[in-house]
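Action item from last week, closing it out:
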Amino acid sequence: MSEKEKDEILIIEERVYDDSYTHITLSPDGKQFAIFNKDSYEIKICDVEQINELKTINPFKHSLLSIKEMDLYQDTLGWSIAISDKFKRIDDTYDNLIAVSCFGRDSISNTPTVHDVSLDLKGDRDVEKISKSIFGTTKIFSANDNFYSVPFAGVVKFMKNDANFICLVIINSIGMYKCGLELNETLSQWSIDKYKLPEALEDQLKQLQNGQQRVDMLSRSITNDYLFIEDFRNRNRIIEAYNLRTRKIERTFQENFAQSSFNDASVYAFSHNNHLFAFSHDKNKIKIHLMENGLEVSSKLLEGVRRIIFMEFVHNDEKLLIVTQEPSETKTFKQVVNVWDLFSTTSNSFRTYEDKNRIFPHKDVYQLRLSNASGIILSIGNDNEVVSILDHPDIKNLIEVEPLSIFSSLTQINLENIDSSKYHIIFGNNGEKLDIKDYDQEIINSNTEPWIIQNTYHRISAFLDDEKKIQLVIGQSTVQVWYTCHIDPNSKSKKSYLEFIWTSHRHTPIEIESLAVGNRAFSLKLSNPKITIDLPCHDGQVTIIKDACNSLVHLYNQRGKYMKLSRQRKYDRLLHQTHSIIRHFINHYPSVWRLMDIRYNLMESLIKARDIVLINKVLSFGKHDYYLHTPRKLHWSREKKTTDIEIAIEISIQDNSIGGLMVGFLLEYYSNNAKDNIEWMTTVTNVMPKLYEAKLDLYIKELLYQPCFGSIEIYKSGIKIPDRAQIRPSSHSIKGFSLPNKLKKLTEEKPTLNERLTSFIKGTISSIMNANIKTDKGICGSVTKMKQDDQRVILRVVPLPNFTVYPEGIDPKNDFKFSKLLKLIFLPRGYKFNKTNLEYFNPFLQLILSDGNDYLFDNPAMEAVIDFKWNQARTHFIRTSCGLYIIYALCFGFLSWAYVRHLETTGIWRDCIIVIITLFYFLAYHLLGIELQQLHHHGFQRYLSIYNLFDLMVSVIPSTVVSIIIGNSFEFENGFGNAILLLRLFSVAANYIYVFLNIMRSVLPFLVLMLIVMIGFAHAIFVILAHPNLINLNPIVNTYSYTDPNTNKSTTITADYDVTSPDDNPFSSFLKSIEAAYFWLSGDFPQINSWDLISIHIITIVASLLLVIVMQNMLISLMGNVFNDASDAARLGLLKWRAELIYEYEVIEKAYYQCTENDPTYIYYTGQSRIFEQWEEKSKQQRKGFKSLERIDELMNKDDHDDDDEFPDETNIERFWHCNCSYFEEGKKEEKNESKKEDNIIVKENEQITSLQNQVNTLNDKLTSMEINLNVLLELLKKQAEEK
């Protein structure tokens, strides 16, 4: 037996269930707790703030049973207890609900049996009718009186209270139950719904052989009103978070490593602001994800740890408390408490404490004796006393870092008697005022704000060391710290470095309240703005970098002020030194930068500062599989924020060169990362239409040809592809669909007759269709059975989350109203939303309105979206528009037939015709009104298309014809013409229509050429035969001889040939000549048989060779060559038309909304593999031609020189501020060896950066100058024109 197997057996043996312990549970808000003693069946509750004032409750005053009678004794597997948040009753008193569940072995069995018991949902207390079973029972009661019982048991958890609703969740191996209570006077209106467990959770429970392990898994699965399901069946590890209120999958977390042991359930932890989600899926590794989009933001490998057993965010979500088991010198394992400072770079940012005092209970009784909620952690100690773990002295000392001792020795500077006539005042590190004349050589930087025109602004400096190498400078809007040192030990020349910068974004000068200085430390309190600045910082460099990034924005805002050359150089050096601080931090602490970006919006500051160099550095870190920037829509406080890419787009409107480049950086970064997880595109979805407003539509084209829009496969198991999305062997299309994302409700409801009939018809059709498909080729069925055949099914996902989801607060659904139905009957339907209110539309509709180019639809993802939305739109228009046109055409046809037949309008025919005429004109009014509404909504330019014009003519011309008919005049127009275009609603006919139209577009120039040649030959013969008498040319007249058999008399008959009649001589008229020349193509040459003239024969032979043999065959060959291109163009044209029709369907007024599928977060699609292979080849070719992408790639792939030389060893900023500088990569033990570079390398790099920025500025100046010159020229031309 291997060591691993022994270890797993040891784990199972350690976890034998013992129910003799007292249970504890916290309310979801962490304000109340309850304990339950199994031996005495006693329940006590208490407020957390009064932890020692436990109150025993007796909730069974009206009950015939007690908790003791719930006990199944030898069949009892365990107990579970939960307490709700405190709620206000009708009588203004406060109360809690408590749930106690005793579950039997069959409730938590790995082979559960169905337990169907009729539920008493009306609060009947006659619970004697509920027989005890090995499934168990759950009792719910208030702390004061009311008592209820339900005949199923399991792990119980209360959810956070709604305004007037309390929800209890009971979960076991059979399913999950949601018991809801409406808060009213009697507390008796319970509703109970049963849900099926997700298939992945059922599979995991079946694999666990130990009952207590299944209880632990179920208990840990419900955390913070979420149900977490881990799916190991796919190639990646997927964690799905179901929101228990909506029952939907709210977030998906994706991992790339293999399944861990089922013997250890995963450990989860939520930050209190619900921004971060930490979980441990391996025995010694922690990963932190952003709850907003599921992307990973940090990870940590704990070396030497056997397993992680508990985690909780503490100290305002700045730290993560971790409890682990580690090997000890004995055979047992020691329990260790760890604290990870997430936002710190200090040497003790990860601290450990061996739990020798048993502050935390043993892992095997965690579910019984430990409870945590909303930042509160309670435990039952060995003496059965309740203990607040975070208030324990040892834990408090571990979490809270002691303030730096250096601040206690600072000297307070007296600022009251400062001479206001002096602009620069300097102090020593002992607080003594110094004469600036005596220390002129020691001053490192006397003018730290070069954008101020004169040096006559008040500033205070202080040396922070005895050697006077460190200088603090407090100016009008900045606080800076500079350091100076010798470049070379043998040289007297010195060089200064910026080590700290803070800037005020207010327009008024900063006001000092107090200042204390010491050796390499200071404390500054400002009254304007109200802030305290302490250095060194308790979090290492985190505060320094946050302030440096904010300072870049301030420095950028000062760039436009006039500065002479010497001041400009100081400004450039200050800007470059700030860059160096940030670049140095990124190189050494990439993982901390990633978390800081989420909390402090660092990327937003870089974008506002237009700092493309640092943006490039942050984003290019991804090439090392270390992503420093994460897209977000929420601030750290969970408030909505303007996304980083939206800020870049707004900047591009003001400065297209810099802003457009930043947008390109971000789009390239997001789309490349989306190959692994499409949540990287979560902020791109909403900004795609805004790119057109900023005139950055080129990036749309580049983005839509990225691999994530068609080349990324998604592996799913245990799913069923909808019937409409099944790909047939001969299919050339892509099918879009959504997967179920809700917990399946098992409450039995009898289907209606219509539902049963529909199900039967669909089942029959599906059986017939599937019988004709060769499933062995992998065309249909489970995605997990894919083969390497050309016709395999491939499951992919549209890389734009929430692409078809409307903005929050906008509901496109229409409830049926009879008044609305009457309005739509008598008035042409209008539009719910106006095009000017784009914020009402979902991103998909906004994109359709913004762009009509074919490339928008030339990718599998967009085709999938259109296919997904098309079914509802097509069904609606078949029932409405198509139906109206058919009735309209039938009425027109009947009236035309009645007129042609001269039908007498008497009797019943008279009444029938009156009804039909009335209906005809009503439909004409309706159809014409619809067209006018479209014209008003879309505008003339967008409305003007051949299809809309055809609809308009079909609405107007037949009504005009009928009016003429009624007026005893006749003129016929085909009222059925629109039926041909309506065939576009059906896929096969629509494809042929668009193929025909595209072929005609392709061959139209050649047809015009043939027509010109044909007209030329027709004109040549017309000139000869129009007036043959002028050249004494007579036609060949046919003569016939007839002999009478009775009289034997012969008669000669000569044909009458009129050379001026087009019937005899088609070349007597020019138009008839062209018509006759056209029929040459079919072999009809009337001029050969009627005229004997050599010139006519020559023209005919040449025309036959050129038109019939050469050009006609060229036309056939050309049509064959353009057919494939026409098919592709027809596909794009069809998709474009469908997209426009989907837009019409979404925004028009409807009496009902046929919503068979809600708009999902993710849209999946399938198709033949050859479709994706062809698109991949095409997209590669397209990407080669994108010049902007080449420019971005060139910058992204530029060698990133290390900037550590900005901080020489003897003056390293880490050493100066008492911090530990150790560059590390997660998961690697070796530290990177820092190498000192030559100073000229840095100078060269700085020159390159400055040169790039100067080139951009020069280009902007030239464009501005050109614009001015053009305006001057235009004015001169206008004056000259006026003088003339």
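Closing note: The mean pLDDT is 75.
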